[in-house]
Structures are given as C-alpha cells and as structure tokens.
Inverse folding.
C-alpha cells in the first residue's frame, strides 16, 4: 500500500509510485499534472510553484516520467495537492526515439480514455511500467503496443474474445478462417459469416494464437512472445478499430503512429 504521512497541519499525505500522463501550466507558476498511480489509478493534482521550483520538481514532471510522489487525496472533485516528487526512472532512451515516443503516446491516450479518477487498478500500473521499460530497452514498438493493448482491454474488463467463434462456439482451428467483429468484441468463423461484413477485420490463425497466449501469459514472461510482421500488422489493425468502437471516438495519436512507425 502507499505510505501515509501527515503535514504540519495534520492533513494526511501519501507517498505513491506514479507515472506522469499529462502536464499543463496553471496560473503564473503552477502545474496541473495527471498521474497514473500504483494503488490509486489515475490522479490529477496541482503542483504549486512547480515552474519556479529549483528542488522539488525541476525536470521531474515530464510526461512518462516514473516518480515517487507525495500527495493528498482529492476531496469533493478537487485536485490533489502534490507536495514533492522523487525521480525513479526518466526513460531517456524512449524520449530519444520518435517511434518509441509516438508509441508511448498511444499507450498514454488509451490509459486516459480507459480509466477514471481514483479508481485503483492493480493490473494497469505494472502493465504501464512494463510497456515503458520495454520501449526504453529498444524492443519493437509495434510488438510492445500489440501486447500492451491486448492486456489493457482485459484489465479494463473488455477482453476481446479470440478463442472460439461467437456463433458456432467452435474453437479456432487450421481449416477455418476468421474475422473480428468490432461491435461484438469477438471473432466469427467465415463459415458462420460468409462474405465481408462491415466493421470486421480478418485475423489469421497464427495471429489469434499469439494474442490468446498474450492474454494468459504472466507479465514477467510476456516479452518472450514473438510476433511476426504479419501478425503485428493484423493485430494492430483490429486493436485500433476495437479501441475506436469501445470508446466511440478516434484514437488521435494513432494517426502519428501510422506516419512514423509503419509495421
């Protein structure tokens, strides 16, 4: 659990591991920062005087930075108060590669879309750290995004059904071909849905097997999964369309991903 402390006024503050998701200026010297915390989930707070700080916040409140923050718990929809921050990891290599940074921005957008303020989630924080660490280490951005998204949808309760046909319930097998139906969040074999219905994406057997394995793999072994270029292309197409269907809006950062980091 997060460590609890009290300030001089007796107001409870907590120490929490967190990743910076957004940061914007407020007034002459303050910053409003959105974090994703290990135990609290998404948290938005104000860092008073952060733009003039020489000790507490200097070079720390940048997007994707991993921190240990000291903060209050927001009450009555007010902002949390961010008292100080300690740098844990800056992910410098991620920031120096445009493809990795753009991929991280897509991950950031999905986290912001799929979470609510102060709704803790024990799965998403380690998944986010895994993705940023993997990008920082130079692994394939397309593979990391694919694996992140398939686990992300599961974590928020919208896991796509990829193991058997929605209509006939038969498990996937070599003799059949499949399409993913975004509205249903499930695959159907082409025997049940002949032709090319709208809002469907074809998925090969190899891609389906890789993604179902990723859904069940322990996080510390996820990086062992190998995805072919074909599987990454298929998977990212369906994950993009599924995200748009789920959130009923475009994933803005994906447009930059397509121009900078083609599969």
């Amino acid at each position: 659990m997060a460590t609890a402390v009290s300030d001089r006024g007796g107001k409870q503050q907590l120490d929490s591991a967190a990743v910076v998701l957004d940061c914007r200026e407020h007034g002459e010297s303050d910053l409003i920062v959105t974090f994703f915390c290990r135990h609290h989930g998404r948290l938005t707070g104000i860092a008073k005087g952060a733009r003039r700080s020489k000790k507490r916040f200097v070079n720390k409140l940048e997007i994707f930075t991993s921190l240990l923050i000291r903060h209050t718990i927001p009450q009555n929809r007010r902002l949390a108060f961010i008292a100080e921050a300690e740098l844990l990891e800056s992910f410098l290599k991620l920031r120096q590669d445009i493809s990795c940074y753009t991929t991280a921005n897509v991950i950031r957008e999905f986290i912001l879309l799929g979470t609510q303020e102060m709704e803790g989630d024990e799965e998403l924080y380690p998944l986010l750290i895994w993705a940023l660490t993997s990008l920082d280490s130079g692994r394939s951005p397309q593979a990391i995004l694919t694996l992140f998204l398939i686990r992300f949808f599961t974590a928020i309760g919208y896991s796509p059904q990829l193991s058997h046909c929605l209509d006939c319930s038969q498990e996937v097998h070599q003799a059949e071909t499949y399409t993913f139906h975004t509205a249903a969040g499930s695959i159907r074999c082409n025997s049940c849905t002949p032709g090319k219905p709208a809002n469907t994406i074809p998925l090969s057997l190899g891609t389906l097997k890789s993604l179902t394995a990723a859904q069940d793999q322990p996080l510390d072994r996820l990086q062992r999964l190998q995805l072919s270029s074909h599987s990454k292309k298929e998977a990212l197409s369906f994950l993009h369309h599924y995200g748009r269907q789920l959130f009923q809006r475009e994933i803005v950062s994906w447009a930059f991903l397509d121009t900078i980091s083609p599969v």
